[in-house]
Fold these 4 entries.
Entry 1:
Amino acid sequence: MRIRSTHFLFTIALFLGSISASAIRAYFDYRVFHIPGQGPYVEFVTSFDGTTFAQAEADSGYYHSKAELTLIVTQGENVLDFRKITVDGPYVKFNEKNDFMSLERFSLPNGVYTIEIEIRDVYANLPEPERASQKIMIDNLSEGAFFSDIEFISAYTPTTEENAFSKSGYDMLPYISSYFPSNLDAIIFYTELYQLNNILGDQQPYAFYYSVQDKFGKEISEATRIKRQTSALVSPQLHIIDITKVPSGDYYVVVEARDKTNKAICSKRRAISRNLIVAIDPANQVISEEVLSSSFAARFTDRDSLYDLLQAHLPIAKSQERNTIDNTLPTSELKELQSFLYSFWYKRNSKEPEKDFLVYEQQVKDVQSAFGTRIKKGWQTDRGRVYLQYGPPSTRIQRPHDPDYFPFEIWHYYETKDQQHDRRFLFVNTTLGPDYELLHSDVPQEAKNNDWPNLVKTRTNSTPSDVSRNSNQQFRDPYSGDELQDLWYNPH
C-alpha cells in the first residue's frame, strides 16, 4: 500500500493583453481529475472579462460578446490535442457586466505538457489573437488511494440537463482564484477521492476531514470539519468552509481521508490567501477623558469638520483604518472621532503623536491650496494623494502649455516615504481643466500604462478617452531624443 500526500497545483491566472487599443483580459486555470480504469483528465477553465470584449447587438435588442478560443496541448514537438471553439457571452443591456466562461476536458496520461492558448475577440475585428502558454504536470497514482486536485467553486445547483459544468450531479461554476477577500465568508470546494475501497474494502467507514491550516500546519478551529463516510471507488466531495473568522494571511485548504484509528490514508492541499478587513469599532477605541481632554484631538469640537479631516487621512491609512473611516465613522459621535484621531497618530508615534499630526495637517492644507478644485478636495486628487502618501517629490517637472502635448507633470523621488528609491509619477491633464490624472508610474502598486509616450502626445491626433486604455507596448529608447521620454528617464 502506498500512502502519500500528493503535490498541489496552484491556480494560474494569465492576464492576456496586447499592444492594441482594445486589449482583452482573461483568466486561466486547470485542475486534474481521474477516471478509474481510464486514467487522468484535465479540466481547462477560461474566464473572460466581459468589460474588455466588444459587444454586438442581437435581434432582441440586448447585447453580447463572443470569443474564439483555441487550446493546443503539446508535449515536446508533438501536438496531442487541439480545440477551437466559440464561446458566447450572456445577453445583457448595453455595457452591463457580461463575464463569461469556458470549460474543456482533455484525457492525458501522467507527464509534463504545454497548453497553448489563443483568444480572439470576435466582434472587435482585430488582426491577431491574444496568445499565452503554460506548463502543466500530471502525476496521479496508479495504485493506492488519492485525491484529485481541489477545485474552488463560486456557485452550484443540481444538474437538470448535462452540460460542460456538470459533475457528480451538480452544475458547478469554478472560482478562478485562490484569493478570498472580506466580502466572501465561505470557501466552496470540490474534490474526488479515488480507490479508497482498495485500501479499506467496499463500504467501510472512514473519516473525511477538511480544514484551513496556516503554513505551520496549525488548524483554524472554526474552519475544521470531520464527516463520517463509507469507502468507494470514487467519492465526490462538495463542501463549504466557513471562513468568517479566518484572519488575513496565507493558508492551505487541506483534505484528508483517515481510517477508524484516525490514521491518515491520503491527503491533498491547496494554497489560499485571505484578506479580512474588519472595521475598528470606535466605541472600543475611546480614550480616557483625562488623556483625550489634554490631547491635540480635543481642540476639534465640530463633529463634521473633524470627520472631513479624518477623511483626509485616507491616503496614508491602512486597510482596516480606511474601512473604519469609510464605513463606521460617518455615524460616530464627536468623542469617538476624537479618540480615533488620537489613536491613529499614537500608533505611529507613541512619544509625540501631536508632532506627526501637525506635520500631516499642514501637508493636507498644502495640497488643498496647490491641487484642490471646485469639485475635489486636494487630498482627493491624484497629485494630492501621491503627495500625502509618498511625500513631496524631489523634482517636479511641469509642462502646462507645450503645443505638442497635453499638459503634464513628472514627479521624481530620490526616496519615497516608504523608502522606495528612484521612483516616478506621470500626471496628465486631458480635459484642460485644473485637475491632472495619474497616467503612469514605476511604483509597483500604482497605475501602469506602457503606452504613455503616445498618450501624452495625442493632443493632435486622438481624443482624451484614449488615455484610459492600457497596453503592453514596451518602453521606447530612453535616449530617443523625444523630450517627454528624456524628461522621464533623466528628470534631474
Entry 2:
Amino acid sequence: MQPDAAPGLTTLDLVQALLDSPPPPPKISEIGRVAEVGDGIAIVTGLARALSDELLEFASGVRGIVFDLEPDRLGVVLLGPSEKLALGEDVRRTDQVVSVPVGPALLGRVVDALGRPNDGKGPVDATVLHPIEAEAPDILHRCAVVRPLATGLKAIDAAVPVGLGQRELIVGDRQTGKTSIAVDTILNQRNTGVICIYCAIGQRGDAVAKVIGAIREGGAMDNSVIIAAGDEDAPGLVFIAPYAAMSIAESFAAKGRDVLVVMDDLTHHAHAYRELSLLLRRPPGREAFPGDIFYVHARLLERAGQFTDAAGGGSITALPVVETQAENLSAYIPTNLISITDGQIYLSPGLVRKNQFPAVDLGVSVSRVGGKAQRRAFREVAGNLRVTLSQFEELEEFARFGTRLDQATRARLARGKAMRAALLQSERDPMPAAEQLAVLVAAMEGLLDDLDKTQTDAAMNAIRATIRTDDHGLEAQITGNRKLADEDRAGIIEAARKAIAERVRADDADA
C-alpha cells in the first residue's frame, strides 16, 4: 500500500518509503490444464481443490462449470463454444458459482442464460447477482394456492383452472399449440401486475423471434423478461437457462411480487443434459438418460409456489412445456414431469385435426389445485362443463353409426356442439373473465344450439361487445369472488339473447 504523501517529501523519499514497506503477501492460485475437449465439455487436470458446481475460467475466455469430480480429473460443462479451447490451455478457479443479474432492470429485456443482453439495447443495468442454484423453500415457508391466474383462455380458466403458485404442465405433440397457450397467458397479464419470464430452451432462433414479436405487439413486454438459449448455443447454456429464469423469478417473489415462469420446453432441456452426461461418460439409464434426470427437473420445479409473508409473500407460477411423440404420455420425461407438477394441460392432435383451437383435451387435462383457485362465479357456471362435453363425445361417437335418434338425444348433441364451439378461441386473443363468463352462460343456456359455426362466431363476438359496453356487474362479482346471483344470470342471458338477435338480423339484412 502506498503511504500518504507528507508535505515536503521528495520523489526519492516516496520511492524509499515504498521500498521499505513490507511486500504484499503471495497470492496462491491453482492452475489446471485442459486434457480433453469435446462438443460442449472439457476434461481438466491439476485442480485438486476445485468444488462441484464451481465456475472455472479458461485462458481463452470461455467459462465452464465443474460437473464431475474425480481424483485426477474434472468433467467441465462449457458455457461457450468448445472450438475456442486448445489442449494444454490454462484453467483457473474463480471460487464462485454461476450467477445471473436480477432485479427490475431486466424487465423488457432479452438476455441469454447468463444475463447478457441479446436485444442490442446495451448492458443490463443490474448490480445484484443471484446464484442459479438455490434450495427450494421448505414447507413452513409455503401456503395454500387459492388465488387464480387468469390465462384468458375459456377452455383452461373454466375447466382446468391455474392458481398463482401452481406448477401446471403443458404437454402435447409438435404443432399442437403449446407455445401459443403460454404466450396468450403472458399477454393476459398485461394489467394484472404479474411479472412474466419466458425461457426459451433449445428453440430455433426464428421461433423465439416470433414469440418476442407477439409479446411486444401485445403490449406485455414491459413486465416481461425473455431468456433465450437457442439450439445454436452451447449445451451448457441450454442446461442452466431454466435455473437462471427461476433465480430471476425468486428475486421478484422475495419482494412480494407474483411471477409467471414459462419453460419452453423441458424436453430440449432433458436432451441437453443427456448429451452432456453421455459426453462425460456418465452411466446411461432408461432411454439413455442419466439416473438423476428426475432430480434435475424436480429441484427446478420445487422452487415454485405460493410463499408466506416471512418468505416475501410473493408467488412463482411455473408453466413447464414438454413435447410428446405420437401422443405417448407414458414416455420417460413426460411421466417424470407429470408426477412432479400439480396437473397438466394436454393438447390433443385429434382436436387439432378437427380445427378445435385451443386443442385442450378436457378428458386428460387436470388441475390438482382444482376449484380452490377458481372464482365462485366460474365454478357455478362451468361446474358441469366437463360432464356435458364428455357425454356429448360419447353420443357423437354413437351417432356416427347412423342410428335413429330421439328428440332428447338430438338436443343433447346440439348442446354439446354449441359448448364445444363456445370454447373455440383465436390465437393472441386472451379474453377478460367477464366476457368468458357471458359466453359460457349463453352456451350453457342453449342460446347457441341452433347456430352454425359462422353464426356462432358472430354471436360470441356480439356477446363480448355487449359485455364490454355493460358487464352487468360481472367484473366486480368475479373480482370479489362472489356467487353469480339468479338475477345477474338472467340479466346476462337477456343481454346475450338481444345481442344474438341483433347480429342475426344484421346478417340477414346483409344477405
Entry 3:
Amino acid sequence: MGNLLLKKYKDKIEAGCDEAGRGCLAGPVVAAAVILPPDFSNDLLNDSKKLSETKRQKLRPIIEKEALAWGVSFVHEKEIDQINILNASFTAMHRAVDQLNQKPELLLIDGNRFNPYPNISHECIIKGDGKFLSIAAASVLAKTYRDEYMEKIHDEFPHYDWKSNKGYPTIKHRRAILEHGDCVYHRRSFTLLPADQLSLF
C-alpha cells in the first residue's frame, strides 16, 4: 500500500475518480470510478503514471475483481470538441459514477476542479492518485482501458504511432500530422501543429 490511504472518512462509502488522456491530441478522454472494500490492501497499487505497463495490466483484473463497484467511461473526440476537454473530463467521471452498482456517499476527485455530481458530495485532491488507493485504482483502470483503445485504432492509422504514444503530442505524432494531415480521431479543437514550432517536426 505504501503511503496511500484507503479512506478519507471512516464512516462514508467513498469512490475514487480519475481520468486519462486529457492532454492527448487524439482519441477519447477516459475516466474511472472505483469503490474499494474497507479492508482492501495491495502493495503494488500506486498512481498509474508511476507504474509500468506490465504492473498496470497486472493490477487491472485485481481491481475489477476485488472492488465493491467500478465503472469506466469514454468521451470521444467529437464530444470533446463540442464541450471542451475540461468539461469532457468531468462528463467522463460523471458517467463512470453512473455505472457504479453501489451509490457512494463521497467522491474523491483527482485534481483541483470538478462539476458537482447530483446528490453526492465530492472533494478535489491534488495529486490524489498518489494519496488514496481508490483514486489510484481509478487511475489504473482509466489508463489501461484508454491504452487498449488507442492500440486498437493504431491499426487504422499506423503512421501516427498511437501504439507507442497513445495519442500524446510527441514529435513523431506531430510529424505524422504534418505529413499526412489529421484524421477522424484527432481533436480538432486542439492545436495539433503549433505554428511557432513547425521547424521541430
Entry 4:
Amino acid sequence: MSEDGNKGMNLILQGPHAAADDLHALAALAGAERISPLSPAALRAEGVAATPDVVAAVQAAALAAQVDATFIAPGRTLADFSLVAMDMDSTLITIECIDEIADMQGLKAQVSEITEAAMRGELDFAASLTRRVALLAGLEAAALERVYEERLRLSPGAERMLAAVQAAGLKTLLVSGGFTFFTDRLNTRLGLDYTHANVLEVEDGRLTGRVVGGIVDAEEKMRTVQRVCAELGVPTARAIVMGDGANDLKMMSVGGLSVAFRAKPVVRTQADVALNFSGLDGVLAVLAT
C-alpha cells in the first residue's frame, strides 16, 4: 500500500498493565489527530499516517512498554464479520494438550520439543503429530480426563471475547490440530457452533499411538474455515481467524482479520493483529465502535 493509502488509519493501543502516559506517548509518536479512550488500559488513536517508518517506530516502542499496537482501517467493527475461527492449544486455552498428555508418560520434554519446532514452522505438522502421538501408545485413556480437569485452562479474555461475539450474532469455530476429546468438551462448555480436530484411537481403554482418519493440518484447518463460511453463505473475508503457530497461517491468510495470540514470531509478523500482552478479548478493542 502506498503512503497516501495509509493516511487516516486508526491505531489501537492496549495492554493489561498499560499506563495512560505510555498509551498517550505512543499515540503522539504515531502523530494521532484525535484520541478516543476505550477503557482504562486501551485507547484508539485516530488519523494516523501508517507509513513503514511510523509503524516500525510505534511497534518497537509498544513492545518495550508491553503494549499491543494495532493499525487498522477506521470503521471496522464486529458487524463486518460472521464467524470467529480459533485454534485451540495455546490460543483458546493456555496449554498444548499433547504435551500435558505426554507428561503422564514421563515424556513431556521430548514431546514439547517436537511441538515447539512444529509451531515455529520447522517441522511438517502432520509428520510431527504422528511422531508425538506414537509416543503416547499404551497410556490409559483416563489420563485425558486428568489433563482436562487438572491442567486445561482458558486463555485470559476468552470467555469475555466469546460472550461478545456470540451476543453480536457471530458463529464460532474451534479448529484444532489437537484432539476431539478436548474440543468436544469445550464445545459443550462454551456453546460453540462448530469444532474440528483429530481423533485419538483407543483400544481396551488405552491409546494405541495412532490417529483415526486424516490429520487436521494447516491445509485442513484452512479448508475447514472455507467450508464453514460456505455453509454460512458468507465469504471468508467475513471470518476473524485466531492462532499462534505456523500451522495456523494458512487459515489466517483466508480470513478478513487475522489475530496472532501470544504467537510465534513467524505468525506475529504476518497477522493483522498481534496480541502479545492483552487477552483474547483484545480483539474487541480493535473492533470497538
